[in-house]
């Protein structure tokens, strides 16, 4: 048997967004209902960086690739959840060294953000030196349970260190119910092509015999 963890943020008006900026709130409206038609339909207007999403390098690098350059194979496979809930304000290299990250690993950072549904504008983020450490280790990707992987760093060094090392960035995860350890991960961004980010559904599976899948 295996267990499934849905680590995606629910999308709704009033949800936590980056620094709680009102312009980043999703707007969902009904465009027809059963009072006027035989089918119910609605429309959503949403920032690509709202909720759980994948960033592409174009987000921070003028010559960076769009979502079309990130293959789905890189977002499916083994990963490791790291419990860094003891980190205050930001995650530094010192917080990460004990986990000994390995080349091609996909790491998901569980912080104090996952312990509340209202982490607001002062969320825990990955500091530049932590990102540089993970980039040097050659990790395939980094996910975090915050609306952004960094918060108030001039020049966005965390994003840039990871993008320049060809590491994928996933933001907006919810890891409160997920124990530290290894999992099989499926992150499926919607298949937009020419954008700098895409909303995604993210799932973790525990107890899988991964070798049996191939």
Automatic annotation (TrEMBL):
Record carries keyword Transport: no
Keywords: Hydrolase, Metal-binding, Tryptophan catabolism, Zinc
Gene3D superfamilies: Putative cyclase (3.50.30.50)
rRNA-binding is among the record's keywords: no
Pfam families: Cyclase
Organism: Aneurinibacillus aneurinilyticus ATCC 12856
Domain of life according to the entry: Bacteria
One annotated GO biological process: L-tryptophan catabolic process to kynurenine
Subunit structure: Homodimer.
Protein name from the UniProt record: Kynurenine formamidase
The protein's Enzyme Commission number: 3.5.1.9
């Amino acid at each position: 048997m295996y267990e499934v963890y849905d680590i995606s943020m629910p999308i709704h008006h009033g949800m936590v967004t980056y620094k709680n900026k009102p312009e980043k709130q999703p707007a969902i409206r009904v465009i027809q209902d059963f009072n006027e038609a035989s089918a119910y339909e609605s429309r959503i207007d949403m920032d690509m960086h709202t909720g759980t999403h994948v960033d592409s390098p174009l987000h921070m690098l003028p010559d960076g690739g769009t979502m079309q350059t990130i293959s789905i194979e890189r977002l499916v496979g083994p990963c490791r959840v790291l419990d860094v809930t003891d980190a205050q304000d930001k995650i530094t290299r010192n917080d990460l060294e004990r986990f000994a990250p390995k080349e091609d690993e996909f790491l998901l950072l569980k912080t104090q953000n996952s312990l509340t549904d209202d982490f607001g504008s002062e969320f825990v983020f990955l500091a530049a030196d932590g990102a540089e450490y993970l980039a040097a280790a050659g990790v395939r990707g980094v996910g975090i349970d915050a609306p952004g992987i960094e918060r108030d760093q001039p020049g966005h060094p965390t994003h840039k260190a990871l993008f320049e090392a060809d590491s994928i960035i996933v933001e907006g995860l919810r890891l409160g119910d997920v124990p530290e350890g290894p999992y099989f991960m499926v992150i499926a961004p919607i298949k937009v092509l020419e954008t700098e980010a895409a909303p995604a559904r993210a799932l973790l599976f525990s107890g899988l015999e991964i070798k049996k899948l191939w």
